[in-house]
Predict the structure of Troponin I, fast skeletal muscle.
Amino acid sequence: QKKRRAATARRQHLKSAMLQLAVTEIEKEAAAKEVEKQNYLAEHCPPLSLPGSMQELQELCKKLHAKIDSVDEERYDTEVKLQKTTKELEDLSQKLFDLRGKFKRPPLRRVRMSADAMLRALLGSKHKVCMDLRANLKQVKKEDTEKEKDLRDVGDWRKNIEEKSGMEGRKKMFEAGE
């Protein structure tokens, strides 16, 4: 039992020592990054000196605008290059996938499902509507269909044309007119 306690105590001590080393390393890295940042800013961004006259201020503004435009153009160019290379990578990976050839299709099982069960599976608990397809159909009475048949027979223009064509049809029209 003493050995176990000694081993756990040693483990705890090593763990705390490693954590302390890690903390000091992280602090050193943060300080190094800060120094690197300051050096970069000093190199690329000279300190701003504001001139006293209005003319000199306008010149300074024009220079700054020109720098902004050039940096913006570079940023746009790099974005376009990046988009182009990503598109090429996607195309090449698709070609590689196609060249590998054999596509394994997973075996599909037939599942018998009603429309309600399918909607419940897709929509989850949101599905409250019952799929009774016959409930929404319009009910038609027999009398309506018979009336429509009579109208179709009377209103068929082909029959009237055939009856009125030729001499007999004209004779009928003449007699009907009297």
